[in-house]
Design brief:
The protein is 27% helix and 29% strand. The protein contains eight helices and 17 strands. Strands 8, 9, 10, 11, 12, 13, 14, 15 and 16 form a nine-stranded mixed beta sheet that branches. Strands 1, 2, 3, 4, 5, 6, 7 and 17 form an eight-stranded antiparallel beta sheet that branches. Strand 12, helix 6 (219-230) and strand 13 form a beta-alpha-beta unit. Helix 2 packs across helix 3.
């Protein structure tokens, strides 16, 4: 992302993009104790702008902060309003939204003491995270040599900045071997998730996704589970191994950034026919019909606003 959208909301005020700066001794910069969200705003088919599952994302931000014992100095309602105002201020009809709460400078050392808690909201235009072609044709994935966090080592239900060092190491490894993304196993060797996405597999029209043990409770994951069940599919939240992916009919990733991205290959093995499968395409079409405001059954997931 290298696009300057104009203004960043910083502790209640809009500041020019280039002036949204912090001190080099900012505590979170050194120790990773920040919490964040990734949210999308879509320009709908009717021309309106809608933020997808805004309140749930902001609630998860506050849940993450609670886990980290960080007191965000704004209410959830104020943060929702600030997100909408950020889109308006930057005249964005669609794009990506990044709220980040972090511990400021003051006391150094692992224990942050009473250092201030800061909150920023940045917005910018952003297309398909893994590429438009990936949404259509699927991606190549490699099983990482790095394990996903154990829930008693890192707090896996919180979207904590420091947790993503694990993802960075895994992603670098995958890119070095010319893969698009990597699959991460938990410490017991079962499938967990990707570096920033949840995973689903399909066998005989039954969907499976790992339970919420060492994985983040993704809102896109929850969306797809709901849509699939409403469409008549059986969805099981249960553990499975990577070789079950090898022999699956289909597989895909979900996430706010990745949306619903098919997997065409894992560890040099084709998944199914080696392309986006029929059920995956149906779910993908249903997902986009929802976020683009075409399926009014799920209109409650959309937060409408005028730019």
């Amino acid at each position: 992302m290298d696009q300057n959208s104009g203004k960043i909301w910083f502790n209640g005020q809009f500041v020019p993009w280039e002036d949204a700066q912090v001190h080099v001794l900012t505590h979170t910069l050194h120790y990773g104790a920040g919490v964040f969200e990734g949210i999308r705003c879509y320009k709908c088919t009717d021309g309106s702008s809608e933020v997808f599952r805004l309140e749930e994302h902001v609630e998860r931000l506050f849940d993450s902060a609670k886990v980290m014992q960080m007191e965000i100095p704004f209410s959830q309602e104020e943060v929702c309003e600030a997100i909408i105002n950020s889109l308006r201020e930057n005249k964005l009809k669609e794009g990506y939204i990044r709220p980040l709460a972090f511990i400021g400078d003051g006391k150094m050392g692992v224990y942050p003491g009473d250092n201030p808690i800061n909150l920023i909201i940045a917005v910018w235009p952003w297309g398909a995270y893994l590429g438009e072609e990936a949404l259509q044709k699927g991606i190549r994935v490699k099983t990482s040599s790095y394990s996903r966090h154990h829930p008693n080592v890192m707090m896996t239900k919180a979207k904590i900045a420091g947790n993503y060092v694990n993802s960075i190491l895994a992603k670098r490894e995958a890119f070095a071997d010319n893969y698009d993304e990597c699959l991460m196993l938990d410490v017991d060797g079962y499938v967990a998730e990707a570096t920033g996405e949840n995973i689903f597999i399909i066998k005989n029209s039954v969907l499976k996704t790992p339970p919420l043990g060492s994985v983040l409770p993704g809102l896109t994951r929850d969306t797809v589970i709901t849509l699939a069940r409403d469409m008549g599919y059986t969805v099981k939240e249960q553990r499975f191994t990577r070789d079950e992916i090898y022999i699956a009919d289909e597989a895909f990733l979900t996430g706010t950034a990745a949306e619903l991205t098919p997997i065409r290959e894992l560890d040099s093995r084709k998944i199914g026919a080696g392309e986006a499968g029929a059920v995956t395409k149906l779910l993908q079409n249903e997902f986009f019909s929802v976020v683009l405001g075409e399926n009014l059954k799920y209109a409650g997931w959309l937060y409408n606003f005028e730019t």
